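FIELD: query
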Amino acid sequence: MRFITGPLNKQLLHNLLIEMIDDCTRVRAAVAYASRDNMQLFEACAKHLKPLEFYGRYDYTVAVDPSVLRWFLDKASPNYECRLVPDILHAKVIWWVDAGAYIGSANLSDRAWISNIEAGTFLSHDELVETGMGLELQRFFDDVEDRARPLTREIYLEQLRLSERRADLSKRDYDLEQQFDKSRLLPKNQGLVFVDTKRSSEKRFQKFEQDWNDTLQVMRAIASRVSAPGIKPAWIETTVAAGVQADQFLHAYYYKQVKDGNRHPYEEFFSKNSKNPELALRDALEWWKQADFDHSFEERTIYDWSPRLRELLSRDRILRLTEDEFIDAISRVHAIRDHAVKQENEHLGLPDSPQAGDDKVQKFGEWLWQQRSHDGKSILDLLNYVVWGNGSVAARLWNAIRSEQWAIPHIGLSSLGEIVGWARPDEFPPRNMRTSKGLRALGYNVRIGV
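FIELD: result
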């Protein structure tokens, strides 16, 4: 945790942005006021191809400068979303997802970032998870989203006209507000007390469920294609589950065709392939069939890791796993391995020196074995519920990452979605964030992280 007060303690938001932008997967910012003199956050996201969701304030004061609004309109990209909250947004939160979050007083202006006395706190990704603040941030942005409206050209022109008039209207603010309220394009927000939070939560779940099921159908369609005779590579046996084949096809495509050194340009691929996803998929399937690359990693996953996971996660075995068997299982889940390797050595009780990935996974598994949800559920209880519980998989996943009954720190949607797939690949192809990036690179308009 860091205290961010800018020039007072030499902890500058500009430096924090540079530090976070490479490691994050996307940016979610709810900052009430945004000035034309500070476009650093927006330009950094564009430069590094990081998806951005920006929420600003909407009222007669022109809280978000028209130049900022124009920036989003000119981008005309699903990668950069601007949504406006009428009247009541006053937050200053920047969440570099999977890297950390700033929560403080600074707006997006040069005065706030350079010269004002501002105060805020930065929490790393691990701190957000361990303290439960990650879930709180998710809920916060869900609530903000429920009250937001998408930017339109009409709103931009309205705010531009207002900004041009404000130069000489400082003494007539009240009258301007009254005039604005009579003709405003977005309805006046009466405040949080009037919000039906239960209905808002239901709407968020319905959106998640729709996204999950839509992507599931895409994965199933690809699974049927990639496992079909004449397309399936000769080195994959016909007995291998179609869902497993789809997962490994997308894995290989992403890491061998899309990833470029330290760059992850899946949005560049999306921009190109979204015009004709079928053609992109055919080209990728032909490349996969030819197998003119080292596929030893994929063979290990298909013939070693996948069968072992299916055995350990079976309905009659999952609740009887020993600690060693549990660690053996999670060591074969890519999303968990990636997360474990990123943990600080101190958190895992390891020396402050470079550690082997397998050692970090082992220690992470030992730590995870001891964890409980708020209501006392163990990690095996959680996995059994997600894989074999009642109701839809989407509903169980939603509860697993959001409810106090089931949520356990450091186990998120990417890990659980993959685990369901390894346990039941004939029904649910394994899927994690890398899967979504692979699909998006092929031109499918899927949400990252769902």
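FIELD: remark
The chain has two domains: 2-195, 200-441.
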